[in-house]
Amino acid sequence: MRVLIVGSGLYGAVCAHELRRAGHDCHVIEKRNHIGGNVFTRHVPEAGCHEHVYGAHIFHTNSKRIWDYMGQFAEFNHYVNRVKVAHEDSIYSFPINLFTLYQVFGVRTPDEAKACLAKDIIANDNPGNMEEYCHSVIGPTLYKLFIEGYTQKQWGKHPRELPADAVKRLPVRLTFDDNYFNDRYQGIPVGGYTAIIEKMLEGVRVETGIDFHLNREMWIREYDYVIYTGPIDAFFDYRHGVLEYRSLRFERLLIDSHDFQGNAVVNYTEASVPWTRILEHKHFDMNQKEPMTLVTREYPQAWVKGDIEYYPERNAQSEALFEQYREEADKISAKIHFGGRLGEYRYYDMHQVVASALAFCEKQFV
Ligand code: UDP
């Protein structure tokens, strides 16, 4: 088959690799002037590391199959995400673990921590929003310190107006384990993510700087099948309305210091600090040799047409709208497939993107 893949992010690149292997003729077109979508990284010689240009990307998965799959394209380092929280004059261990509870409440053992939380939480079997959920799991003290301000900045809404889903990603542990993820496999590719995408796209025709939407009908006519990884609402010219997204702005600082913050990720959870986190890229590469360092301040912002859609903002209203687009997509599924974070309108992590792309390729092409 002659297959057009719109978008060279992780979903498009995995599909291109699998389809080429299965003997199909693939052509990838990409709107930006580089491949890789939001996993794009570039080498910054002054800081001796790879910059996560569109925000931190830490690969983690519980699936040996997905881990081994990625292992074909790169060696992964032993980076483990251990975030710190800066709040007023203090630094806290995060995600919430026994050391955090020691720092906040002075408790030293799992039993003491359990008893302390039991006193603080507001039991609720049926929390109606993120605030109620947090009150019922970690109590108001920890919620105020770690969740309320950060979430307000991240989503532009108070946690009382949000579903609890996003926060359920975060572990809460009564041990000293401060790993951000529970998954068995975790790391950052040595050499960056762009090198992975390049390998996936080896032998595939790739063109950057091409906006599919400018000539959509022509592209669709020319190919037997189209895999579209852009926003599903944009494909249909927003005819039912615009889906909700959250965007980000990054402020990049090359600093004349060997080590700025001693960690890859520091979250700023107060509402009064405008950024949500500061990334220090050399710590992702686990390379602290260079005399300079590169840091990025991350500012969440409202999404307006033309901005990059970073986070699908799923709520009852946007899900109902997405369903309308999905019904439209189903009608043309013999010719066009919608995939990836934007095509499927899902708050996917990278391992989920890879799994979704592989499942689709197996079903449709093998
Ligand atoms: N969150 C928070 N405080 C933090 C970190 C996360 O309140 O210090 C909440 C916030 O609502 C966020 C969600 O937990 O959207 C998920 O956080 P995660 O770090 O997994 O988000 P991502 O890295 O995908 O932006």
Automatic annotation (TrEMBL):
Its cofactor is FAD. GO terms for cellular component: cytosol. It holds the Pfam family NAD_binding_8. SUPFAM superfamilies: FAD-linked reductases, C-terminal domain (SSF54373), Nucleotide-binding domain (SSF51971). This is UDP-galactopyranose mutase. Belongs to the UDP-galactopyranose/dTDP-fucopyranose mutase family. Signal peptide: none annotated. Residues 146-347 form the UDP-galactopyranose mutase C-terminal domain. InterPro entries: UDP-GALP_mutase, UDP-GalPyranose_mutase_C. One of its GO terms (molecular function) is UDP-galactopyranose mutase activity. Keywords: FAD, Flavoprotein, Isomerase. It comes from the Bacteria.
